[in-house]
Amino acid sequence: MKISAAAIAASLLLAAPSVHAQTAELAGTWRHTGTQQELVIRSVMEQRTTYSMSGDFRPGGSTVISTRPVPTQVRRDMTLTIRPDGGFDWMSDKTYPESSSCNVTLRQQRAGILTVSGTRGAFDIRQGSERASRSCNSNVSQSDRSGRTENYTISRSGSTLRLNDGTVTWVFTRAR
To answer: What is d(CA 106, CA 115) in angstroms, rounded to the nearest whole number?
Structure first.
């Protein structure tokens, strides 16, 4: 009995869990609370040395402000609710020290559709916002985070859900 390549491919597709079934397995409310090191974009004052056109070194130079990612201890409190149809709501509070007397708090709210294929998950953000505030002043900034897609490696074991974006892994536990 000969089995065609098309018949083998069809049987493999039928045996594989559907994208919808993979998302449904993640349905529920998940929580993450913890402090870990993350890269945070910070403004840094740097002293730059000045050279003359002839190549002579001149003492002094100039001071410039630049931004760069800096490893920082960050506290996160997150709640992620995933519905069986793939819809999700994700609220995240991220707090870190800007200085010894000032903390920055970012609140992100995201809602949209989660698509899972194997271990890859794409959060298609249909509605999203970010609000930044500081404990040392009353300035608040807000931005729209709609129309973005965030990609993660997703793994689940019992009541634990792990999301990894390539730089950090967040471990969620199922809310009761």
So the answer is: 26
pLDDT number for residue 45? 75
Give 10-residue mean pLDDT values along the chain (176 residues): 53 47 88 92 75 61 81 96 96 94 95 95 97 92 95 96 92 93
pTM of the predicted protein model: 0.75
Question: Residues 6 or more apart from 159 whose CB is under 8 A from it?
Answer: 173, 174
What is each CA distance from 131 to 29, 70, 91, 104, 110, in whole angstroms? 23, 21, 12, 10, 12
Provide the 3-class DSSP secondary structure of residue 14.
helix
What are the CA-CA distances from residue 6 to residues 3, 13, 50, 169 (Å)?
A: 8, 11, 69, 39
Paired strand residues for 155: 162
Task: Delineate the domains of the chain, giving CATH numbers in brackets.
Answer: 17-41+73-174 (2.40.128)
Name the burial class of residue 24, with classes exposed (0-12), middle (13-18) and buried (19+) by CB atoms within 10 angstroms of its CB.
middle
Run of H or E residues at 19: helix 19-24
| pLDDT score at 39 | 87
